[in-house]
Amino acid sequence: MGELFGLIAVNKPKGLTSTEVLNRIKKKFGVSKVGHTGTLDPFAEGLLILLFGKATRLAEYYQKLPKRYIAGGILGIETDTYDITGNVVRQTQGNYPSRGEFEEIVNTFRGEILQVPPPFSAKKVRGRRAYKLARKGKSINLQPIKVKIYEIHLLEYNPPRFTLDVKVSGGTYIRSLIKDIGVKTSLGATTESLKRTEIGRLNLDSALNLEELLNLKDLKEVLLSPDKGLDLPKVEVDESRLQLLKNGVYIPFEGNFREGQLVRVYSPFGFSAIGKVVEGKLKPEKVFV
User: Fold this and answer.
1) Would you give the DSSP letter of residue 250?
2) DSSP 3-state assignment of 243?
3) What are the residue numbers of the active site?
């Protein structure tokens, strides 16, 4: 199989790490250059975007996209991992808030907030992954980061359990969000279930089940254009101007774009590059053909 260039959306099942999903695909299809655009914890399920070949260079753009999750939480319990798989560090008993009271608490998290990532996360501390230090019992001091909660809706509330539908900025930890909601109730809370349903313009409707994917003979049957999920404007160039971009030349182009805007560049070869608007010209950021 020649080098692939594209994207496949997978519905990751519970119980597997994101890396294990990659390894199964590598083994079955003999591909070497494949990566995902954002880890899902083993207890979590849902949308995992896989990029193949040169398309792996697009991962940084996908990681910044808004994401949507369906998250289940449980009040009255806190764990060291901020999810149900961790060690219990605090349990409480008390009166649960009414649905109206709890919904008011949930709604206070809409908009920009400061959030401390979980100690068991991929964040780096002094050059090392936080979860590796946490597993060794090391003290971890992660700094708050600014994230945005675009939407947050209470779907179900049957105390102690509740279910949220949330759309968040890239880099947001749902485990931390649910923990912080628990703090505001004074009861504590931890994440019991987590399903990612959207990344940018892609959703679970466009995703293949892992077993379905592994039963294919050729990945090319389901390979999508690698820019499929990027919510960026499209610019078309001819072959000569594409060559200029490949040589690092800023090219003039038509279109009403703001300064610094990223765009998807198409040529007669299809999706060909990511460009950036600089002083009315198109600067090549990443060229793929």
Assistant:
1) -
2) helix
3) 41
